[in-house]
Each structure stands twice: as C-alpha cells, then as structure tokens.
Amino acid sequence: MSLEKTCSKTLNEDSPNVNLMPPTVFFICLLAGGVLEFIYPHNIDILLASANLMTGIFIGIGGFIFMYIGHEKFKKTGTNVSTNLPATELVVQGTYRFTRNPMYLGGSIFFIGIGLAAGSLWILAAYLPLFLYLSYYVIPHEEAYMERTFGEEYIQYCRKVRRWI
C-alpha cells in the first residue's frame, strides 16, 4: 500500500479525533505549576513537610498504578490507547468495571499526589486546566465516538459504570 493511501485511510477512519494527547496536556499543566511554584513560591502546609511528602507519594503511586493497570488492559486486548486512533474493542473488564476512565482518573490522582508531595498550591491549582480539558473536551469526544462505534453495548455500559468514580 502506498504512503498516500495509508495516510488517507488513517485520516478518514472514525476515531475520537482528540489530537492533543492527554499526557501532553498533563505534562504542560504540571510544568506550568512547577514554574509558577519556582517563580512565586506558595507552599501548602496541610501537614508537616515530611507528612505532605509521604502522603503525596502514597497517593501519587496509587494513582499511577491505577492508570497503568487501565493502560495495560487496553494493550492486552489490542485496543488503541491513542485518542486519535480507532478503538478495536469495548474494554469493560479490570479497572473499567469501576470507572469508564481509569487512565484519566489514575493520572489525575497521580497529578494531585505530585502536588501534595511537593507541598505546592500552584501544582495543585495547575490540575484544574487538565481536569477541564479532560471533562469538557476529551471525554465527550471519546464518549460520542464510543456510542457511534459500539452502540447499545456502550450505552448499557455507561448505565452501569460512572464516568469518573
């Protein structure tokens, strides 16, 4: 198959068409929070610094593991993880029994854990644009695509499993 046909096929395939990948926005928001914290330090003192660090690390690791398990379930079933590629299967097992978005939920918890570990109000505040991006752009595009692709099976899944938790 020629490169032109391959590119044409990829561009015409149905997908959520979210081309700015969520991990990219995650890192942009995290970097912005870190830069703001460096320029205008604004630490949070919920607990002692060492307790903030340990709590943040614990929460962050938990979020990362949850995100990773969701990611690996996609890979194991052969479904595309990228938000600009078509889905090959509706994944409803594993962490997807508890939330329709375990990768986003786990990533969010990981982000918040980093903010707590750093004791940084700026990093915690920088999560807000990521949350808005996921909630009002990425997830609605993905849900519309999943409904188009999997129809009633996806609708039934949505009735049983919440978007976040």
TrEMBL record:
Residues annotated as transmembrane: 20-39, 46-69, 109-139
Topology class, membrane: Multi-pass membrane protein
The protein's name in its UniProt record: Protein-S-isoprenylcysteine O-methyltransferase Ste14
Biological processes per GO annotation: methylation
Keyword field contains Methyltransferase: yes
GO cellular component: endomembrane system
Keywords in alphabetical order: Membrane, Methyltransferase, Transferase, Transmembrane, Transmembrane helix
UniProt cross-references to Pfam families, sorted A to Z: PEMT
A single GO molecular function term of this UniProt record: methyltransferase activity
Cell compartment(s), UniProt: Endomembrane system
Lineage per the UniProt record: Bacteria, Pseudomonadati, Thermodesulfobacteriota, Desulfobacteria, Desulfobacterales
PANTHER family (alphabetical): PROTEIN-S ISOPRENYLCYSTEINE O-METHYLTRANSFERASE, SLR1182 PROTEIN
InterPro entries reported for this sequence: Phopholipid_MeTrfase (IPR007318)
Record has Transferase as a keyword: yes
